[in-house]
Amino acid sequence: MLELLRQLTQMTEEVRRANLIQQYRLSVEQMDRAIDDPALAAAMSTLTGLSERRRRQMLFSNRQYGVLLMAHRVGVYDWDELVGHLRVLCRNEVFAEYWASTVEHRRSVPDESLESRVGSVVDGMLEDLRDDPDEWWVVGPVPESQE
User: Rounded to an integer, what distance in angstroms lies between the CA atom of residue 90 and that of residue 129?
Assistant: First the structure.
């Protein structure tokens, strides 16, 4: 009976992961369409005062961040790998501008969520990079994963 319960739990987790991937796939398709079409980009973006080119860059930065977060959620990257990829992403000026422009968006994310924990790490990395951009590979404390 315990083995059956373990298998059921494992199957439930696999279905949850598959649903998460499918939902993300749909979101990426929409984002790709918005990046390709300025009218759709304007409809998808909540940022104001951007040129078409900059809006597309912001959407793509969001997409890059989302890809890394999704990879961690489904087990492709462990916490340390995620942090390493985020360090590289934080070196990108467009991403840094995207992150600063969307600070208000992240305020509604629950403190205990993965996205909140990752957001705190990114905040620390970007702050450290402003102080010493030549030390990009060691910026930000690497808090242990709370998963």
Answer: 8
pLDDT in tens, 36-93: 999 999 899 999 999 999 999 999 999 999 999 999 999 999 999 999 999 999 999 9
DSSP one-letter string for 79-119: HHHHHHHHHHHHT-HHHHHHHHHTHHHHTTS-TTSHHHHHH
CA–CA dist 132, 90 (Å, integer): 13
Residue 13 structure tokens:
């987790």
Q: Specify the long-range contacts of residues 114-123, CB closer than 8 Å, at least 24 apart.
A: 114/69, 114/72, 114/73, 114/147, 115/69, 117/143, 117/146, 118/69, 118/72, 118/82, 118/86, 121/83, 121/86, 122/86, 122/90, 123/99
Task: State the pTM of this model.
Answer: 0.81
Tell me which residue has tokens 């598959």: 18
Give me the pLDDT at residue 130, please: 83
Question: 19 pLDDT band (50/70/90 cuts)?
Answer: very high
